[in-house]
Amino acid sequence: MIDQEQVTKELTVGQLAQRSGVAVTALHFYESKGLIKSNRNQGNQRRYPREVLRRVALIKVAQRLGVPLAEIGEALKSLPDHRAPTAADWKHLSAQWSRDLDERINQLTRLRDKLNGCIGCGCLSMQACPLRNYGDVLGEQGPGPQLLEPHSAQP
Predict the structure, then answer these.
(1) pTM attached to this predicted model
(2) pLDDT digit string (tens) for 39-70?
(3) 124 vs 83: CA distance, rounded Å
(4) Distance from CA of residue 94 to its chain's centroid?
């Protein structure tokens, strides 16, 4: 039988680290960025409500998707602090992240397709290479390094 006191008991940072699989230093970092919150006991030690476990899991999944911590933080601000994120919360948060992930997949697919068309030539011509600077588009943007977005300078 589960002891109700154990279920409601807050977690130490070590317990949270062990249960979540996240290093103590990372948990401190998340807290410093406002992603998770702790309470302090009489000895000024951190104590985490159990719902923080779900928040940490959400952070880790979002990070694996490539979502920047700043975006994760903004998303978590939309959730109440006093409860664990629910499936409905995740569905809402993941909708935008899913669109962003689809766009990254499309960009990587376009890059892969250009790479496959160029493999083996070894030219890396700054005037003609579709991977680096197709049609010397960057030369028209002025001197110095330029960021070539996947949607510009299409062959």
Answers:
(1) 0.64
(2) 998 888 999 999 899 999 999 999 998 889 99
(3) 54
(4) 11
